[in-house]
Each structure stands twice: as C-alpha cells, then as structure tokens.
Write a structure and sequence with these properties.
Layout: E1 3-8, H1 17-24, H2 30-38, E2 42-44, E3 47-48, E4 60-65, E5 69-70, E6 82-85, E7 89-94, H3 111-118, E8 128-129, E9 132-133, E10 142-148, H4 151-162, E11 167-175, E12 181-185, E13 188-190, E14 198-200, E15 208-216, E16 220-227, H5 234-241, E17 269-277, E18 284-288, H6 293-304
Parallel strand pairs: 5-8, 10-17
Antiparallel strand pairs: 1-4, 2-3, 2-4, 6-7, 7-10, 9-10, 11-16, 11-17, 12-15, 13-14, 15-16, 17-18
C-alpha cells in the first residue's frame, strides 16, 4: 500500500523543497525525495513542483511514497554464512566466487538472490523490495559485508561510508617482500584503454590505502590492509602499483605461479574486519570473518617452505 504524508509550511522557507522534506521524512534519502518530486508524487497546494522550489507560509505539501515493487531477481535457497542479523541489517561472510549483483551472464546464484531468500521481510529500498547493497566485494574476494534491510538503514550506512566512518580491514597474500608498513595515496579511475579495469590516473578519484606486514615468506608475504576510501579494485591496484600484486590476481598481477607451493585458484584477498555504527541504535559494532580454507591452505604451504619448517 502507498504511504501518504501531509505537511504544512508554518513559515516562509529559504530551503529547497527537497531539503525541506529531508527534515520531515528522515527515512528517505534526498535522492529518493528528488525522484518522488520528478515523478509528480510531491504536490504543493495540489500542484506538482520542482525540487528547488521555496515554500511560503501556509502552503500544504503532500507526499505519496509508492508501495515497493518486487525486483527481477528471485529468491534462491543458497548457503549464506550469516555473522549477524536483526530487523535493520544483515552481516555476512561472503564466500569467494560469489557475484554480489545479478548482471549479464550472472542472472542467478548471486548474493542478492541468496539474501532475498534469507530475508523475506524486506520493506523496500528506493521503491523496490530488495536488499540494500551498501558496499561490494569483488567476485573472488571473500569476507565481511553489511547489507541494509530497509531504507532508513540504507540511508544511515551509506552516510557512514561516504563520511569514511566505517573501518575496513583486509588480509592479502602478495608477491615479494613489502616494507613492514607503508601507504599509497594515489587516485584511481577507469583504465583509458581496458575499460573493465581500473588504474592510477590523475583524473581518478582520491584513494588511500595503508598496510602492515604480518608475515614474510621470502617469495610472498601476508599483509593486513586498511582502506580509507572505497574505490573499485582499490587494494589490488595500489598493491600492484607498489610491485607487490595480490597472489592469484590475473588482472593486475599476472605472474607465473610455478614458484608457489600450489597455484592460487583466485586472488588471495579477504575482507577480515568491518567496524561501523548500528543505523538505529547507534551502538558501535565490529564484525570479523575468519580466513577461508583456500587462503589458510596457501598460508600453511608457504610457512612449510621456510627454513627450519618440519
């Protein structure tokens, strides 16, 4: 059922209509309200308006929020490692090889298909009954992801990511021996030729990555990586730029795996920890995901190559 809201402008307003409404409908993002205005679902004294309109005292504003529509993706009873769940969010440990969103060539078997099955009570985000994907992990990256279950949670989490309040920590097995600690501050954008890839470019968006070396195996090392921005392929691009690409990364670190004790089946990158604030209670939350089996096996094999290993 559609939601109906009515407001009365008590004074002349210097604010735009869309900004004025965000204070009265905090569960809706400004982008969502702008779309409602453009779709003619926000009326001022019974007439459609534009988002930049200023209200005068005594004017009546009505807002119709359509009932959320089902999306094309269908629920699928796929296994899902759930770390935490309540009425607002679900936190999962994404397995390697799982695509997050349905797309060309991946119209089923995605994380969204699994979430639709495991979260049957979704109330709608952006006018659709869907889980709120706030951030993504590459198909072959494993680890912690938080997903919003409703529009207010999506709005809050999106703001936290935008304001860089969420702390993201990864574990990466990389080629070579990097310094004990270091950082990269270099903008990332689309590769000028290979458009499906990312690259360091002056026209890109700011990107900051820092790391500490956890273990060293001579030909490879284990790094704990923190990203302070959330650019596509950020860790993989920055580490490749340093000359220490992620093991198994066929896009940014094409190296022969013959020197390794076993060939990596995917990029050895894992989202190990996520710190955020609960979108409703404001409580600080920390979630951790253990290393998946393939990375544990690779670590054990690398350790076994070290002098003195039995």
């Amino acid at each position: 059922m559609d939601e109906q809201h009515a407001f009365l402008a008590e004074t002349d307003s210097a604010q735009r209509l869309d900004v004025w409404l965000t204070e009265r409908l905090p569960a809706c993002s400004r982008a969502r309200l702008q779309k409602l205005i453009r779709d003619g679902l926000v009326l001022v004294d019974g007439r459609t308006a534009r988002e930049h309109r200023r209200l005068q005292r005594g004017q009546r504003v009505t807002v119709t929020i359509p009932a959320p529509k089902p999306i094309a993706a269908v629920p699928e009873p796929l296994p899902l490692a759930i770390l935490y769940q309540d009425q607002d969010i679900i936190v999962i440990d994404k397995s390697p090889g799982t695509v997050v969103h349905p797309s060309a060539g991946h119209d089923s078997g995605t994380l969204v298909n699994a979430l639709l099955h495991h979260c049957p009570g979704l109330t709608g985000i952006g006018g659709e009954v869907r889980p709120g994907i706030v951030h993504r992990l590459d198909r072959d990256t494993s680890g912690v992801m938080v997903v919003a279950k409703n529009e207010p949670a999506m709005h809050s989490l999106s703001a936290q990511f935008k304001q860089r309040l969420v702390k993201k920590e990864y574990l990466a097995l990389v080629w070579g021996v990097p310094p004990t600690k270091g950082s990269v501050d270099a903008p990332i954008g689309r590769h000028p030729i290979h458009r499906k890839q990312m690259a360091l470019t002056a026209r890109g968006r700011p990107a900051q990555t820092s790391f500490e070396r956890e273990e060293c195996f001579g030909l490879a090392a284990l790094l704990r990586v923190r990203i302070h921005t959330g650019r596509t392929h950020q860790i993989r691009v920055h580490l490749a730029h340093l000359g220490h690409p992620v093991l198994g990364d066929s896009t940014y670190g094409r190296r022969s795996s013959r020197a390794l004790p076993l060939p990596p089946a995917r990029q050895m990158l894992h989202a190990a920890r996520l710190d955020l604030v609960h979108p409703t209670t404001g409580a600080p939350l920390t979630f951790e995901a253990p290393l998946p089996a393939d990375m544990r096996t690779m670590l054990e094999a690398l350790r076994a190559l070290q002098p003195g290993s039995i």
